[in-house]
Each structure stands twice: as structure tokens, then as C-alpha cells.
Amino acid sequence: MSTPVTELLRSHYKEGFHDDLPIVRAVPKGLKHEVVDYISDVKGEPDWMREFRHRSLDLFLKQGLPDWLPGLRDEIDYNEITYYVSPVEKPQRRWEDVPEEIRRTYDKLGIAKEEQKLLGGLGAQIDSEMAYHNIQESLAKRGVVFLSCDEGLKQYPDLFREYFSKAIPPEDNKFAALNSAFWSGGSFVYIPKGVKCDIPLSVYFRINAEQFGQFERTLIIVDEDAFCHYVEGCSAPIYTTNSLHAAVVEIFVKNRARCRYTTIQNWSTDVYNLVTKRAMLYERAVMEWVDGNLGSKRTVKYPSCYFLGEGGHGEVLSLASADRGMWQDAGAKMVFMAPNCTGRINSKSISGRTGRASYRGLVQVRPEATNCRVQVNCDALILDEQSRSDTYPVMEIKGDLATVEHEASVSNVSEEQLFYLMSRGIKKEDAVSMIVNGFIEPIVKELPMEFAVEINRLINLQMEGSVG
After folding, report:
1. Is 12 left (phi over 0), alpha (psi -120 to 50) or beta?
2. Distance (Å, whole) CA 360 – CA 394
3. What share of the chain is helix, strand, coil (3-state, %, to 5)?
4. Is residue 359 part of a domain?
5. Domain encompassing residue 154
6. Which H or E element spans position 377?
7. Which of 7, 116, 247, 271 has its CA 20 to 30 A from that of 169?
8. How far apart are CA 4 and CA 301, in angstroms?
């Protein structure tokens, strides 16, 4: 049901539209083992996956929330969520074969057919299933695998089972268990030894259904001396009810391999975004997380690097922008379990119009991880007196000869800065935009061009009316 408030929000959030799509398959609301069986039956899964799902649901029902996650315990009514909805029969490999009404949805989102030519592969998920998934023939001939996670299980059962749930088991946390019970869609990527997949593989996740839970599962394996760049985007309609997004991303970066994972999250303000992302780094592996968080009612997300082999390097570049009604609890984790590894965390946040942004991070250097170095920088920009920024760093240093640095700063858009720019003929709104864009520039410059332009547009929209 639309209200004047939702209409106002949609006018500022172009992705907030809702399409009336035919539903091919759906389940009743609520946490039920019958839903698990339905999903396994529809997908034709092996017995071990069905058992895994049932065990995960039992874990979710038993697990509590940590004390440092206030509010979520009472805010989400899990029995009012629909855990599987599909408007498609199966994913298509030709864009022309995708149902016309779904193609219209993606056209409105700006994901045009022409953009596919710039990507090594493109996936488009709507609600619980992929509507489209394809890869360039040149990459496929070099052995690159880019499938939906469901197809990865079917076509590469041994490889899939070897890595699935090994980085993030359902016991890891409550939302990982929820995803493990109801997962559907997402991507399965394998880059063979020595193959450089320089053209990004990209997936766009769209929620369309109301009071819905999206639980995609992404599994990426970058074999020795290989490279992969994976890019994802996401959005959802604006409703008067809440939805839930609880994804799991597992990445394995083998010896001397490199992986870059770029995310621009742009959920509507009625979505709880509760995500677990973790990369396992082997000898001299490199992992780069570029993580942009805009929108959502509440985000809980800490991309992680676990260093299993000597000489690995990890980076997390994180940007969070919290507008009215949002709480972005974002950050990073780095766990050093091998010697001579290095890491860098660069976190930037913006808070405006009562929004709240938090950096929550963990740096852990275990006894066997000698001679490791890590640098953490947290910078927060607060646009008004009603907004808030917090920093919750945890550092557990047990390895010898470790070098750990942590720097944090909090600032606002000062009257002096505005006066200086306005005295040179720049309008106040433009002056604020210049200051904010300069603040986020170290993160934005790491994004692909189309993402950099879009993130500046979104932040400028959020800032309208935030100052003055």
C-alpha cells in the first residue's frame, strides 16, 4: 500500500518502484522445515544439501544474537517473512529469452543490454532466483566458470562441495545459519590456474516481493596465479513493511592469486541488510574488498580476510552513508594466522538527517602470525547535530613483531569551509557536495567508472537538506 511518505521516498530513490510480476513459485510465510523441503525439491538437490539446510534452520532457531547488536532481536518478525518467491522458471542465457516484464524492470534500473558487452559475465537475480546468467565465450574457452550457485552445485558437484560452507559454516552466526537454511541464487565462480579474468563479472540483485527474504549464496574460487574482479549491485522497492537480505559470500584466494570484490549496496530503507562476507587467503594471495553501503534500514556487514598462508595481503575499502532512518553498522575483520602478512582497512562514513554510521572492526594477530603489519584508518563526516557516528575497534595482538596502527577522525562540514567556498561564488548546496565528494574520493576512485558516478549521485541526493 502506498502512502504520502512512501511516495516522497520514491521521489528521492529512483530504484524504489515496484513491478507487478507474475509469481511462478512461492511458499507461505514463516520459518518452517516444510519450506526447506520445498526449496530442495524445486531445485532437485542432493540429500547432503537437504540435510545441511535442515540442520542450519535448527541452528538458527537455537542461536541468539550477540549483545553488541542491539535492537535486531525485537525488530524483525521472522514469521512474517516469505522465504522463497520466484517470478521465473529458470535462468536464461540470452537476454531476449528473459520474460519481457522482468527485462523492463532491469531497463528501469539502468542495466541495459549494451552494458553486458562491457562485462565478462552478467547475472540478474530477482527475488529468489536468477532470471539471467551468462559469460563471454572467450572467458568460457579459457575455463572460467560463472554460474548461478544452484547451477554450480549441479554442474560441478565435487568442486562445489569441497568449498561450500568451509569459510562460513552455519555455526558462524545467526544470519549465516538463516542463509544456509534458505539460500537460493547467487554466483558460483571458478578461475583456473594462471587465468587473468580482467573483465569484471557482475551480478545485480533485486528484491521485488513485499515482506520478503533474499538469501543468495556466492562462492568464488580463484586458483593459483589467477585473478578475478567480481562486481555486485542491489536495490529494492519502497514498501510500508520490512524485508530482509541475509547473504553469504565465501571467497578462496589460492597461492599468488588475486581477487577484487566490489559492492554497491543501495537497498531501500525498509530492508534489513545482514550479510556475512569472508575471504580465505593462501600463500602470497591478495584480496581487495571495495564496499559501498548506501540505503537500508539497518546494515550489518564486515568483509573479512583470513590469512592462512605466508605473505598474503588484504585490503578493505569501506564507505557507508547513513541518511534519515538508517543505521550503517559496517567495517572489516582481519585475522592473521600466518607470518609476514599485511593488511589495510580504510573506512569512511557520512551521517546526515539523524542517520547513524558505525565502524566495527576486528584485527586479530595469532601467535603463529609473526612479523605481520596492519593499518586501520576510520574517518567520519557528520552533516548535522542530530546525526551520529561511532567507532568500535577491537585489536587482539598475540603474534611477535606485529606492527598495528589505528587512526580515527570525526569532523563536520564547518562554517569556515562553507564560507570559504561560498565567498568564491559557489552555492551552499554545491559547496557541501564538493566537501563530501573530496572526503569520499579515496574510496570512489577505486570503483569502476559507472559505479563512481552513481555513488556520487546517490550521496548528493541523500545530502539534500542535510545542511543549513
Report:
1. alpha
2. 8
3. 30, 35, 35
4. no
5. 4-301
6. strand 373-382
7. 271
8. 31
Number of domains, the chain: 1
In Å, the largest CA–CA distance within the chain is: 70
Q: Which of 378, 109, 395, 142 is nearest to 266 (CA)?
A: 109
Place of cell 607470518: 339
Closest by CA to 329, choosing from 291, 356, 289, is 356
In a domain, 427, yes or no: no
Residue-wise DSSP of 230-296: EEEEEE----SS-EEE--EEEEEE-TT-EEEEEEEEEE-TTEEEEEEEEEEE-TT-EEEEEEEEEE-
Nearest C-alpha neighbor of 276 from the set 246, 234, 309: 246
Report which secondary-structure segment, H or E, holds 400. none
Residue 399 counted as domain residue = no
Residues in the chain: 468
Tens place of pLDDT per residue across the chain (468 aa): 444 434 444 556 788 898 999 999 999 999 999 999 999 999 999 999 999 999 999 999 999 898 888 668 788 999 999 999 999 999 999 888 999 999 999 888 877 554 566 789 999 999 999 999 999 999 999 999 999 999 999 999 999 999 999 999 999 999 999 999 999 999 999 999 999 998 999 999 999 999 999 999 999 999 999 999 999 999 999 998 999 999 999 999 999 999 999 999 999 999 999 999 999 999 999 999 999 998 899 999 999 999 999 999 999 999 999 999 899 999 999 999 999 999 999 999 999 999 999 999 999 999 999 999 999 999 999 998 899 999 999 999 998 899 999 999 999 987 888 889 999 999 988 888 888 888 988 888 887 766 677 677 767 766 665 544
For helices 33-43 and 174-182, give the axis angle rounded to 10 degrees: 50
Compute the CA torsion angle 49, 50, 51, 53 (nearest 10 deg): 80
Three-state secondary-structure class, residue 226:
coil
| Distance from the Cα of residue 3 to its chain's centroid | 29
Neighbours of 194 (CB within 10 A): 14
Q: Is residue 394 part of a domain?
A: no
Residues near 145 by Cβ (< 8 Å), separated by ≥ 6? 152, 156, 188, 189, 190, 191
d(CA 252, CA 431): 43
Task: Show the cell assigned to 98.
Answer: 528473459
Q: How far apart are CA 268 and CA 270, in angstroms?
A: 6
Residue type present at position 36? V
Q: Which of 8, 15, 18, 118 is nearest to 458 (CA)?
A: 15
Phi, psi for 324 (deg, rounded to 5)? -55, 130
Q: Are 33 and 56 in contact (CB under 8 A)?
A: no
